[in-house]
Amino acid sequence: MRDEPTTEAQDFPAVTAQRLEAIPELDDAVATCRACPRLVAWREETARTKRAAFRDWDYWARPVPGFGPPDARLAIVGLAPAAHGGNRTGRAFTGDPSGDALYAALHDLGLASQPTSARRGDGLELYGVRITMPVHCAPPDNRPTTAERDTCRPWLTRELELLRPSLRAIVVLGGFGWQSLLPVMADGGWRVPRPRPAFGHGSEAIIPSPEGDGDVHLIGCYHPSQRNMFTRTLTPAMLREVLGRGAEVAGLQIG
């Protein structure tokens, strides 16, 4: 009998992810991953050195799992955790300007219980929405390598497979997330069109499901990065509009 893979093993995500039968199990397994040495070193070094404003924090310093209900109808796919955001708090889009913009927009639409997110366990709930990402560790300069993205891919592939019975729409934040998501959907059996849909703010594409039991509506959105929000490449109104469109096609009530 083959031994169970260790979290340091090169095949840990690929072997382990497909064995998991529920979203909570997947989230627990993601948080143990040590498959990418550069990312492990960076996230742990960031936790040791910290930022002056957060010197009293005990950083999460592990891979950040997805957040939201296991029967979500709408998924939001970002890039990766921020070094002093998700890597500090343990929750995606929490503790940085991107998260401030995202959760405020979700709350305005009635899809989040509160407009801010400070840390895991702060009482925030999402309604019908799950937030995830193609890379679960904070990368140096916010730039994961292609190899790191591909190593992490099985987590997102399995997450979307487990969400498939309910999932009807995905809002993708940024071009990296869009380019990373399409191969993941193809791996999961979705019939991704050829040529592959191009990313753009407000761009939309229908991705037929493997069994024809519920297609997924893909919607592009500029990433709510501090730079994009400061330059008004993306405004709060633009973000609400795209998220509202995602909720609409997913069949979620907003208000």
TrEMBL record:
Cross-referenced Pfam families: UDG (PF03167)
This protein's record includes keyword Kinase: no
Keywords: 4Fe-4S, DNA damage, DNA repair, Hydrolase, Iron, Iron-sulfur, Metal-binding
Protein name, UniProt field: Type-5 uracil-DNA glycosylase
Family stated for the protein in its record: Belongs to the uracil-DNA glycosylase (UDG) superfamily. Type 5 (UDGb) family.
Database matches in InterPro entries: UDG_Type-4/5 (IPR051536), UdgB-like (IPR044147), Uracil-DNA_glycosylase-like (IPR005122), Uracil-DNA_glycosylase-like_sf (IPR036895)
SUPFAM superfamilies reported in the protein's UniProt record: Uracil-DNA glycosylase-like (SSF52141)
Organism for this UniProt entry: Sinomonas terrae
